[in-house]
Predict the 3D structure of the following.
Amino acid sequence: MHLTLRQLKVFKAIAEHLSISRAAESLFLSQPAVSMQLKKLTDAVGLPLIEQVGKRVYLTPAGNVLYESCREISESLERLEMAIDDIQGLKQGRLRLAVVTTIEYFAPRVLGAFCDRYPGIEVELEVTNRKRLLDRLATNQDDLYILGQPPDGVDVEAQPFMPNPLVVMAARNHPLAGASHISLARLLEEPFILREPGSGTRKAAERLFESYGLSPKVRLELGSNEAIKQAVAGGLGVAVLSRHTLSLEGTESPLVVLDVEGFPLEKHWYLVYPKGKRLSVVAQRFYDHLLTIAPTATKQAPPS
Ligand code: PGA
């Protein structure tokens, strides 16, 4: 039987969430990517592993047996990792991370598992915008940086690890809500709420507008994604933000994503550190941890 650890990890998540979409979310993967891994695994096992009734997922007898094995394998791998970590001296230490603001929407999930695994490691987390993060990078103040685009003209190691789609948001009762194929020119007739100068999100949106020879009518500039969402929900205008800023919104969210030409703007999150810097054992472990829990990570830089 040709099974991969990655397929088993995906299956374990499906079995634990009993939902393809929630499994995908927990692994930072798209639903089609999860379905594809499930299909490969089902082919390898040669028996159906789940039954789907509406949105609900049930494990078949083969699925139950496989889930049991997944748990044993993952526990055994954890024990192995712990033994190796003890040998390497990861019992205590400090991790200094600087991240751009949008990371706060998934930092708890990313850091939570790491802190549980290494309770003796103290994490210092600096949450700031792109401009200030690049100032910190230039003066080597932190171990690792997470941002939406590697800096130009600075020699860094940059590893993309997760998609960061930028979308246009509007209030649920906005006249463009529900419209399809809205042209960028039409969108830019609407008042805009922008992030502050120095924000990477703002820069990415402005670059797109400029490439069409257009510019937005700015009604407000705000320094926080949450404040922008409130302003958009209050009908003050539309905004471009990372889709991750919607991750905690329920089905009753007052915000909708508009279907606009050029969007979603397919960006990525990058793990960055100055070229030539020797990562500490702790920083290296966090780097590896992040790439493991974000299985979309690729050694190839995707087009930005
Ligand atoms: P921001 O970061 O918080 O500066 O907008 C996002 C990014 O780096 O793309």
Notes: The chain is about 40% helix and 25% strand. The longest strand covers residues 156-171.
